[in-house]
Design brief:
- The structure is a single chain.
- This protein is mainly α.
- 72% of the residues lie in helices and 0% in strands.
- It is built from 13 helices and no strands.
Length: 236
C-alpha cells in the first residue's frame, strides 16, 4: 500500500497559439491523470523551458517519470524541485518513494524524515517510512510508524500486515499473531498474511492444526511458498 502524491487540476484552457506557463502545466497534469505519462513530461518540459524555476513542474515531471518506472530520472527531477523550494514536503516524499522502489532504504528514510519534519500530519509519510525502516530492519521504529497510521485508521490491512512483519523481526510473535489476525479479518484474500500466520502459529506456538489450515488457505489463494510447509508438516 504504497501512496504517491499527484496534483489534480481540472480546468485547462488554451488561448491563441502560445499557451501560458500555467496552461501548459495544467495540460501536463491532465495528461498524467489519464496515464499519458510521456506526453505529460513533454508539457512539463515546456513549462520548465519557460520558467526554469517552476518547482511544481519539476515535481510533477518526477511523478510522471516515477509512474513510468524511470526512478533514477524521477529522483533527478524531484531533486531539482527540492533545490528550488526546500520548504515543501511533497518532493521529499516523492523522492523517498523513488528511493524506496530502488530499495535504497537509507536514502528513502532521510527523505521521509525531511517530509515528516515539514508536515507531520501526512499519514502516507509515516506508512512509507515504516516500509523503509522495515527494509533497514529497524523494527521498533517501523512499528511506531505503522501504529501512527493505525491509530488514525485501524482498518488498513497492509498496515496491519507490515506491522506484523516488524513485530516478528522484533521477536514479538504474540503481537504479530494479533496483527496478522487483524489483517486477514480485513482482507481475506491476502495469501501472504495467511502464510505468515500459519508459519508463526506452527513455529512459535506449536499450533499445527490452525497453522496447517492457514497454510492451506494461503496456497489456495495462490501463495505458492506455502506448499513446501504443507508437504513437510501437514501431511496426515
Amino acid at each position: 500500500m504504497k501512496k504517491y502524491f499527484i496534483w489534480v487540476t481540472f480546468f485547462v484552457f488554451f488561448f491563441g497559439c502560445s499557451p501560458s506557463e500555467q496552461e501548459l502545466f495544467d495540460e501536463g497534469i491532465k495528461l498524467m491523470e489519464s496515464s499519458q505519462y510521456q506526453k505529460s513530461i513533454e508539457y512539463f518540459d515546456r513549462v520548465i523551458q519557460k520558467n526554469p524555476e517552476n518547482t511544481s513542474a519539476f515535481n510533477a515531471k518526477g511523478v510522471a517519470l516515477f509512474q513510468q518506472g524511470n526512478f533514477d530520472e524521477a529522483i533527478k527531477a524531484f531533486t531539482s524541485s527540492i533545490e528550488l523550494d526546500p520548504t515543501s514536503y511533497k518532493p521529499f516524499f516523492n523522492r523517498g518513494n523513488a528511493y524506496l522502489e530502488k530499495k535504497s532504504y537509507k536514502e528513502a528514510l532521510l527523505d521521509y524524515n525531511m517530509a515528516n519534519g515539514l508536515d507531520a500530519k501526512q499519514g502516507d509519510v509515516y506508512y512509507n517510512r515504516g516500509l523503509a525502516l522495515l527494509g533497514l530492519e529497524e523494527y521498533e521504529d517501523a512499528i511506531f510508524d505503522f501504529d501512527v497510521v493505525l491509530q488514525d485508521n485501524p482498518n488498513l490491512p497492509l498496515a496491519q500486515f507490515n506491522k506484523a512483519k516488524a513485530q516478528l523481526g522484533n521477536n514479538d510473535p504474540v503481537g504479530a499473531i494479533g496483527s496478522l489476525n487483524n489483517t486477514v479479518k480485513l482482507d481475506n484474500r491476502n495469501g501472504a498474511a495467511y502464510y505468515l500466520l500459519g508459519v508463526t502459529q506452527m513455529s512459535a506456538f506449536g499450533q499445527k492444526e490452525d497453522g496447517c489450515a492457514n497454510l492451506k488457505l494461503a496456497l489456495n489463494l495462490g501463495f505458492s511458498e506455502a506448499k513446501s510447509w504443507i508437504e513437510d508438516f501437514c501431511q496426515d
